[in-house]
Design goal:
- With 471 residues, this protein is α/β, with parallel strands linked by helices.
- It is built from 16 helices and 23 strands.
- The strands form 4 sheets. A 9-stranded mixed beta sheet has the order 9-10-8-11-12-13-14-15-16, with helices on both faces. The protein has a 7-stranded mixed beta sheet with strand order 21-20-19-22-18-17-23, with helices on both faces. A 5-stranded mixed beta sheet has the order 2-7-6-5-4.
- Helix 4 packs across helix 10, helix 13 packs across helix 14 and helix 15 runs parallel beside helix 16.
- The longest helix is centred in the C-terminal third of the chain and has 15 residues.
C-alpha cells in the first residue's frame, strides 16, 4: 500500500543511518498498536496517555513489522537488528497527520466532514450508505474521529474511492476541527446540532458552537455546508462560510425539509421529503427507528445532492439503507423487548430515545443513568430529561447519583412514586427489572459509557436482534 519513499516523503522523516540494506520497499499496512502488526506492517510509535509506543517497537518487529516510525532522538535498543530500518521524525503523531494529508491530496476524492454534539455518528453512517449506492465510498469506522483516528482513516484511501465520509469529533479545545480540516480538506460539511455535551471541557455552549463552526469555516468557496436549520446555533453558521449553504430540518422555509412524519414502530419511519429550490417532493420510507432519524436522512439527502446524485437515486438509497446504529433491539427477559442505547447519553439524545420508546406498543420502561461531561448544565440537563419521562414511560429506573436527579424530577412532574425506582448500581437495576418485567414490555436502557450499562442489557437479553430494521 505504501512504499518506503512514500513514507519518507509524506512524513518528512529520514531513514536511520544505522539501517543497512533494508529488506523492504513496500508496506502492506500501517498500525499504531504493536499487537496488530503483521508481516509487512509499518508501526507508528505514538506517545499515549497510558503508554509510550516506543516501548513496543521490538514487539512489533517480532510480529513481522518491517519498519517503525519513531522519534528522532529515540535510542534504539541493542536487540534491534541493524537491517531493520527505523524512520525517524520529530514527532510520530505530527508525522502521521502530515502523511495522511499528503496521501489525501494524492487521491481524487471528495471528502465529506460531519460534526455536531449529537447525531454525528448516525448521520455519518446514513450519509456513507447513501453515497455508496453511487460511488466507491470510504467512511471512518467506530470512533476514529480524532487527531489519530481521522489520519488512519485517510490512509485507507485507494484509487478506487471517490467519496470519503469522515466523522469529526472535537470537544476539548478550540482549533481541533481546524486542524482536522487541514488534514482532510473537506469539500462538503454537515453540522447536526449544538448541545451542552462536553460542556465541562469547553466551558460554554457558545464555545461549543464556535468549535463546531470551524468545519464550515474551512470549506472552499466551491464547497457545500449542510446545516441543521432547526438549531439556531447551527443555522447561524451559514454566516461564517464562503461555501454554498443547504439548510435542512422540519421548517418549510429550509432548503430540505420533511412533512407528514409518521413512526411505524419497529418498521421504521415514513415522511415526505421536500427540496424547496427545485420543488422536488418524494415520499420516503426510512428503515430507521424514531422520528429523530429523519434529521439524519435529510442531512444525507443534502450531501448526496451536493455530491451529484439524482433525486430518484437518493430516495432509493434512503429506503435501502444498510446502517447498523448504536441502538440495538433485542429480545429481553420474560418476553420483554430491550432497546439497547447504552453507548452514550446526552439530554437531547435521551429525550429522542424516550420519544421512540413512547411510540412502541406495550408498557414503556426506561432505565436511565448518569449523563456525564455536561459541566454547568449537569443539574438542568438531568432535570430536563426528568420532566420528559412522564410523557413517554409508565415506569422509570433511575441509576446512579445523577440519574437520581432524573427520577426526582419525574416525581415532581407527577409520576407516581411506585413507578419510579432508584438503583445505586447495575446489579440493583437488574434485580428490580427481573421482578417487574412481563411479556410485551418495552425497555429502554441508556446512560453514559462510564456506567457500563451494557451489563444490564447483557443480563436481560435472551437472543440476537429481533428485527431487520436498522436503529
Amino acid at each position: 500500500m505504501f512504499t518506503l519513499e512514500d513514507i519518507l516523503e509524506g512524513t518528512g522523516g529520514h531513514l536511520d543511518p544505522s539501517a543497512k540494506n533494508p529488506d523492504t520497499t513496500r508496506f502492506e499496512n500501517l498500525v499504531i498498536d504493536s499487537r496488530q502488526a503483521t508481516s509487512g506492517s509499518l508501526f507508528v510509535a505514538l506517545d499515549g496517555e497510558q503508554a509510550d509506543g516506543h516501548d513496543f517497537v521490538v514487539d512489533a518487529f517480532k510480529l513481522g513489522a518491517k519498519s517503525a516510525l519513531v522519534r528522532a532522538n529515540w535510542p534504539s535498543p541493542d536487540s534491534l537488528s541493524t537491517k531493520l530500518p527505523l524512520i525517524r521524525v520529530d514527532d510520530p503523531l505530527t508525522a502521521l497527520q502530515r502523511l495522511a494529508a499528503w496521501w489525501r491530496v494524492r487521491h481524487d476524492v471528495q471528502v465529506i466532514g460531519i460534526t455536531g454534539s449529537v447525531g454525528k455518528t448516525t448521520t455519518k453512517e446514513v450519509v456513507a450508505s447513501v453515497l455508496s449506492r453511487s460511488f466507491d465510498t470510504l467512511k471512518s469506522e467506530g470512533n476514529f474521529n480524532n487527531e489519530i483516528g481521522l489520519p488512519l482513516t485517510l490512509l485507507r484511501l485507494t484509487n478506487q474511492h471517490k467519496k470519503a465520509v469522515l466523522e469529526m469529533g472535537a470537544g476539548y479545545a478550540l482549533g481541533e476541527l481546524t486542524m482536522l480540516c487541514e488534514i482532510a480538506g473537506p469539500e462538503i460539511a454537515v453540522v447536526t446540532m449544538v448541545h451542552p455535551v462536553h460542556l465541562e471541557r469547553m466551558g460554554t455552549i457558545e464555545r461549543i458552537a464556535l468549535n463546531k463552526s470551524e468545519l464550515v469555516r474551512a470549506l472552499p468557496k466551491k464547497g457545500t455546508a449542510v446545516l441543521n436549520g432547526d438549531d439556531p446555533r447551527v443555522r447561524a453558521m451559514s454566516e461564517v462560510t464562503q461555501a454554498r449553504v443547504l439548510l435542512y430540518g422540519l421548517n418549510e422555509g429550509h432548503d430540505l425539509y420533511a412533512t407528514n412524519i409518521e413512526s411505524n414502530g419497529l418498521e421504521g419511519v415514513q415522511f415526505t421529503l421536500h427540496f424547496r429550490p427545485t420543488g422536488e417532493i418524494w415520499p420516503v420510507k426510512l428503515p430507521l427507528l424514531g422520528r429523530h432519524n429523519v434529521y439524519s436522512a435529510l442531512a444525507a439527502a443534502g450531501v448526496a445532492h451536493a455530491a451529484g446524485m439524482p433525486w430518484n437515486s437518493i430516495v432509493d438509497a434512503l429506503q435501502l439503507l444498510d446502517v447498523t446504529g448504536r441502538m440495538q433491539v433485542v429480545q429481553g427477559y420474560n418476553g420483554s423487548t430491550i432497546l439497547d442505547d447504552c453507548y452514550n447519553a446526552a439530554p437531547a439524545s435521551t429525550i429522542a430515545a424516550l420519544d421512540l420508546l413512547g411510540e412502541m406498543p406495550g408498557r414503556h420502561i426506561a432505565v436511565l443513568g448518569d449523563m456525564l461531561e455536561l459541566g454547568s448544565y449537569e443539574q438542568e440537563g438531568h432535570r430536563e430529561v426528568g420532566r420528559h419521562v412522564p410523557k413517554a414511560v409508565e415506569c422509570l429506573v433511575a441509576l446512579g447519583s445523577l440519574g437520581k436527579i432524573i427520577g426526582e424530577e419525574a416525581l415532581r412532574c407527577g409520576m407516581s412514586p411506585d413507578k419510579v425506582a432508584f438503583a445505586n448500581n447495575n446489579r440493583a437495576a437488574i434485580s428490580y427489572l427481573k421482578s417487574i418485567l412481563r411479556p410485551g414490555d418495552q425497555v429502554l436502557v441508556k446512560g453514559s459509557r462510564g456506567l457500563h450499562m451494557e451489563e444490564i442489557v447483557n443480563e436481560l437479553k435472551v437472543q440476537s436482534p429481533k428485527s431487520n430494521v436498522r436503529p
